């Protein structure tokens, strides 16, 4: 498909009073990560992403700026703005820092923390193809009643009703102009754009893209994370090369000043072990059966190539990563100075939280003799259906 530049606006300024937390709901934890972090990882994996704008409460600005500094190195323009008193004001503040050359804007509630990257991509594709507003939506299953006080007045025909979700996508010029012209407060950007005279269509949404508003919602989201869950383990090992021109590649990052690793590709033991763990969890073979040395196009390929190819396979077979943990084994390099950079970079590729650690063999064996590096990874994936 023709390249396009996408910006994602993440709204995280809501107070979250119904969630019963003593902090904004975007900062409430789900499976060890805040709702906002879950949304960031999924948004960063969006195809053709050029800019990510996060609207947060002023009280949490410093906390997010630290994360922003880590994410800037990933090639995406990351901006953090102070959100307004309403959702609409927060979107307007975000649009005020929209980069030039952006074609599509996706506006997403960070409280919909489990929304898949696939849905971000489908909405962006539909905006690009139709050049109108696009929302993901689901049919209404319950019977809907209109009431006054304690009395039911009538039953509403649900056949014409849908449940709107996010991300809601728009041509950049359309949503910017609509917000500038807005003279009333709207509950979502689709209704604002329609009031401006724009057209909005729908694409199928996801049950898992629920908005986490109450404590019960948080429990339901935890259940979604574990439903259809499958685990996998992967490992990789490479010898240091004698080629002084080859730079060490670990976690899809370059490590200048360290010896490179031998291999048909770049020898990235962290990336390769994660690939094996993801494929194993989904029952899709391993790195050799999918990206083998018999395929010349993978000679010298980076670990990111294998990771993105693996994510395409997972999506094709209806799987989504939930989290990944990987441990490097060897004497060098020291990971601690770049651990957070590694975690955020890998997380932005995979679209899920990643934990990175390191250990040595206390001088024992091949690795203890400083002859090479190894890595072991585990992954959790869940079944989400098949890609269309």
Automatic annotation (TrEMBL):
<feature type="domain" description="2-C-methyl-D-erythritol 2,4-cyclodiphosphate synthase">
    <location>
        <begin position="230"/>
        <end position="381"/>
    </location>
</feature>
<dbReference type="GO" id="GO:0046872">
    <property type="term" value="F:metal ion binding"/>
</dbReference>
<comment type="similarity">
    <text>Belongs to the IspD/TarI cytidylyltransferase family. IspD subfamily.</text>
</comment>
<protein>
    <submittedName>
        <fullName>Unannotated protein</fullName>
    </submittedName>
</protein>
<dbReference type="Pfam" id="PF02542">
    <property type="entry name" value="YgbB"/>
</dbReference>
<keyword id="KW-0456">Lyase</keyword>
<dbReference type="InterPro" id="IPR036571">
    <property type="entry name" value="MECDP_synthase_sf"/>
</dbReference>
<dbReference type="Pfam" id="PF01128">
    <property type="entry name" value="IspD"/>
</dbReference>
<comment type="pathway">
    <text>Isoprenoid biosynthesis; isopentenyl diphosphate biosynthesis via DXP pathway; isopentenyl diphosphate from 1-deoxy-D-xylulose 5-phosphate: step 2/6.</text>
</comment>
<dbReference type="InterPro" id="IPR034683">
    <property type="entry name" value="IspD/TarI"/>
</dbReference>
<keyword id="KW-0808">Transferase</keyword>
<dbReference type="InterPro" id="IPR026596">
    <property type="entry name" value="IspD/F"/>
</dbReference>
<comment type="pathway">
    <text>Isoprenoid biosynthesis; isopentenyl diphosphate biosynthesis via DXP pathway; isopentenyl diphosphate from 1-deoxy-D-xylulose 5-phosphate: step 4/6.</text>
</comment>
<dbReference type="InterPro" id="IPR001228">
    <property type="entry name" value="IspD"/>
</dbReference>
<dbReference type="GO" id="GO:0050518">
    <property type="term" value="F:2-C-methyl-D-erythritol 4-phosphate cytidylyltransferase activity"/>
</dbReference>
<dbReference type="GO" id="GO:0016114">
    <property type="term" value="P:terpenoid biosynthetic process"/>
</dbReference>
<keyword id="KW-0548">Nucleotidyltransferase</keyword>
<dbReference type="InterPro" id="IPR020555">
    <property type="entry name" value="MECDP_synthase_CS"/>
</dbReference>
<dbReference type="InterPro" id="IPR050088">
    <property type="entry name" value="IspD/TarI_cytidylyltransf_bact"/>
</dbReference>
<dbReference type="GO" id="GO:0019288">
    <property type="term" value="P:isopentenyl diphosphate biosynthetic process, methylerythritol 4-phosphate pathway"/>
</dbReference>
<keyword id="KW-0414">Isoprene biosynthesis</keyword>
<keyword id="KW-0479">Metal-binding</keyword>
<dbReference type="InterPro" id="IPR018294">
    <property type="entry name" value="ISPD_synthase_CS"/>
</dbReference>
<dbReference type="InterPro" id="IPR029044">
    <property type="entry name" value="Nucleotide-diphossugar_trans"/>
</dbReference>
<keyword id="KW-0511">Multifunctional enzyme</keyword>
<dbReference type="InterPro" id="IPR003526">
    <property type="entry name" value="MECDP_synthase"/>
</dbReference>
<dbReference type="GO" id="GO:0008685">
    <property type="term" value="F:2-C-methyl-D-erythritol 2,4-cyclodiphosphate synthase activity"/>
</dbReference>
């Amino acid at each position: 498909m023709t390249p396009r530049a996408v910006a994602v606006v993440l709204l995280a300024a809501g107070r979250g009073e119904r969630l019963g937390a003593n902090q904004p709901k975007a900062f409430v934890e789900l499976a060890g990560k805040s709702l906002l972090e879950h949304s960031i990882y999924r948004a960063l994996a969006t195809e053709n992403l050029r800019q990510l704008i996060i609207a947060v409460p002023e009280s949490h600005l410093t906390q997010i700026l630290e994360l922003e500094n880590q994410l800037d190195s990933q090639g995406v323009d990351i901006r953090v703005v102070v959100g307004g008193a309403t959702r609409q004001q927060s979107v307007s503040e975000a649009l005020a820092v929209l980069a030039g050359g952006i074609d599509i804007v996706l506006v997403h509630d960070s409280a919909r923390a489990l929304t898949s990257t696939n849905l971000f991509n489908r909405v962006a594709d539909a905006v690009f193809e139709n050049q109108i507003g696009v929302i993901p939506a689901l049919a209404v299953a319950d019977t809907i009643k209109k009431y006054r006080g304690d009395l039911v007045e009538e039953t509403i025909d649900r056949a014409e009703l849908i449940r709107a979700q996010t991300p809601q996508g728009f041509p950049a010029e359309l949503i910017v102009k609509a917000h500038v012209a807005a003279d009333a407060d709207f509950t979502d950007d689709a209704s604002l754009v329609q009031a401006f005279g724009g057209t909005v269509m729908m694409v199928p949404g996801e049950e898992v893209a629920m908005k986490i508003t109450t404590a019960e919602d948080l429990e339901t989201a935890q259940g979604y994370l574990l439903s259809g869950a499958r685990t996998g383990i992967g490992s990789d090992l490479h010898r240091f090369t004698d080629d002084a021109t080859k730079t060490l590649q670990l976690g899809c990052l370059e490590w200048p000043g360290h010896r490179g690793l031998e291999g048909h590709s770049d020898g990235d033991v962290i990336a390769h072990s994660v690939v094996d763990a993801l494929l194993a969890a989904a029952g899709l073979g391993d790195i050799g059966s999918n990206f083998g040395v018999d395929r010349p196009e993978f000679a010298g390929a980076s670990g990111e190539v294998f990771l993105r190819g693996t994510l395409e396979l997972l999506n094709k077979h209806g799987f989504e990563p939930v989290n990944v943990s990987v441990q490097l084994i060897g004497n060098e390099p020291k990971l601690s100075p770049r651990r957070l950079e590694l975690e955020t970079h890998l997380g932005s590729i995979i679209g899920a939280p990643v934990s990175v650690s390191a250990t040595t063999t206390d001088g024992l064996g091949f690795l203890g003799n400083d002859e090479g590096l190894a890595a072991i990874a585990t992954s959790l994936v869940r079944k989400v259906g098949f890609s269309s």
